TrEMBL record, chains A, B:
Taxon lineage: Bacteria, Bacillati, Chloroflexota, Ktedonobacteria, Ktedonobacterales
Name of this protein: Polyprenyl synthetase
Keywords: Magnesium, Metal-binding, Transferase
Organism: Reticulibacter mediterranei
CDD domains: Trans_IPPS_HT (cd00685)
GO terms under biological process: isoprenoid biosynthetic process
Coiled coil regions, renumbered to chain: none
Gene3D superfamilies: Farnesyl Diphosphate Synthase (1.10.600.10)
SUPFAM superfamilies the UniProt entry points to: Terpenoid synthases (SSF48576)
The family this protein is said to belong to: Belongs to the FPP/GGPP synthase family.
Top-rank lineage group of the source organism: Bacteria
GO molecular function: metal ion binding; prenyltransferase activity
Amino acid sequence: MSTLSVQSVFQRHREPVYQALRSAIDAIETQASTAHSELQAFYGQMKYHLGWVDEHFHPAIANTGKYLRPTLLLLASEAVGAGENDDALLRRALPVAAAIELTHSFTLIHDDIEDGDEERRHRPTLWKLWGVPQAVNTGDGLFSLARLTLWKALDEGVSSSVVARLGMLYDRTCLAITEGQHLDLSFEEHLDIPTQTYLQVIERKTAALISCSAEMGAILATTDQESIQSLSQFGRALGLAFQVRDDMLGVWATEEELGKTPAGDIYRRKKSLPIIHALAHANFADQHRLYEIYRQKAELTNEQVEQVLAILDATGTKEFCNSFLTQQCNAALDALANIATKDRPHSQRALADLTLLVRFVNQA
Amino acid sequence: MSTLSVQSVFQRHREPVYQALRSAIDAIETQASTAHSELQAFYGQMKYHLGWVDEHFHPAIANTGKYLRPTLLLLASEAVGAGENDDALLRRALPVAAAIELTHSFTLIHDDIEDGDEERRHRPTLWKLWGVPQAVNTGDGLFSLARLTLWKALDEGVSSSVVARLGMLYDRTCLAITEGQHLDLSFEEHLDIPTQTYLQVIERKTAALISCSAEMGAILATTDQESIQSLSQFGRALGLAFQVRDDMLGVWATEEELGKTPAGDIYRRKKSLPIIHALAHANFADQHRLYEIYRQKAELTNEQVEQVLAILDATGTKEFCNSFLTQQCNAALDALANIATKDRPHSQRALADLTLLVRFVNQA
């Protein structure tokens, strides 16, 4: 499995997703800034966060992310889409895909405030540039705009009962994300949380929106409830795997794989699955050592990072994470096997792409 | 017009609105805290903000506000509701009314953060008690919950196309509120903004949600587009009047009327319509004096407050505000006159109540 073939999966949907995002913001921005020029800065902040403009609101090319969630939504839609015209299928799904990406973006604006992160994708975060009050509010605006974008599906011929179903799923998902963030913030001062609790957090914070994306794609393209349910389960498992893979890379990826210092999450003292598992399974002396290291105010020395890595070794944490990852990837593949895909080239390709994504995530 | 008769208008809808709010939160809270007990604190923060519990999440009786927006929504619905059963009409409108009140509540959580306000209704604000990160997130959660509540209208037999129309209006309104807040925050450091710009701010920040409430009530009860449009205009005018009345009370209300120190908004250096109007119309020396007073770091002396009040007198600011208020109240009454109300006792009473609200606001 090459990284290249996964990149081509993302590449294929990149341009339509980008155009859908642009059109979601551009029309509203033009209208608003005609009413009041100062509102250009409001939508400008959103576009900065999305990686389209610099801090002076001049066009820029920054890292926009790979559009994982909208891509999944479109692939799910293609996988179960019936014999109808593929362009029509895409047009119906694109506003919803854009809504999901805008929602993900909104959560990052508020996460950066809540976590005090000063940089995202190598640029200053919104609150760092424009202050917390504006950033909280611009996040709320992007959240509202995301939902407004969902309704565009009506213009593409999606029935209002289907849009209502999407909207309800969407709102339940947003509530779950905030529940996850509440738990995460509540546990900030604690390291001794059960592994199960950590999984409850990432299920809400990360997996919920990925599951929602796949389920929405399915709802847009089929009425087969079993396929819809399977794609929801697929998304949940993939989302959990995705987060745990990220946690593992933050600890064990090599410098070549990352393009940056390895063990970065240990240097940053990030409370990810490896540390939580190690703490729960280390012997008394190692537990004590981990607490000491994670509670000190000073930066971690290289030697301390080596000590942490040694404790992770002693607790079999990498094996645990790998096994959890494989378990979720298998669950995702099982869910895919339950989907009633159509015998169309597009459906078959989408199914192959979804499978490819799972296998890629399982490579940590 | 007595305050008492206005209170009875609010009183009549108070209990059903409160019950709708409770049921919106209680079911979801029970489900969530069964999954994870720590989530009790998440919903507990929302209930604290709504005035139902104290900071230890024990039942409490605090000031919950008068439920202006949901009451307007229900009155608008009653005013144009056709011959159907009145209980059915109320049941259909209540989830939507609750969604609107929860949305208003959410905006207050984030406003308090953005404005750095430490107290609301004589209790510490959410961020003051639980920190900015949790308060930002609990606000997001309440926003999501508000929208989730909207969908309950489907269970009461509202069609999905009507709910879609409500949802779209709702999302446009939320975006407008954040636009207004962006403008307000942008002008924080400036006093010399045109009166027209101030009105653009309060149109979005305050009038938009009040207009949305009245329009939603109408959409739920009639298909007569002119009545729907008229109730939207009614809400907009009432919302503008409502805010300007508040601005006037903050400057000119007597101690008996307020139950607190008069001219409080001047002591707090609040940038409300009176100050903005006075600055735009004062002579050079008075302008200079106002700038000096509003820019000093120290608390205002009683003498300085007297000076400000004298400048407001000299610029005819109270007359301007009064005339603006009356103009909006007349526009609200004109809009009411265009509504096709039904010849039912409930409709007639609702229309009388809406008229009463306008006359009450016009009394500043």
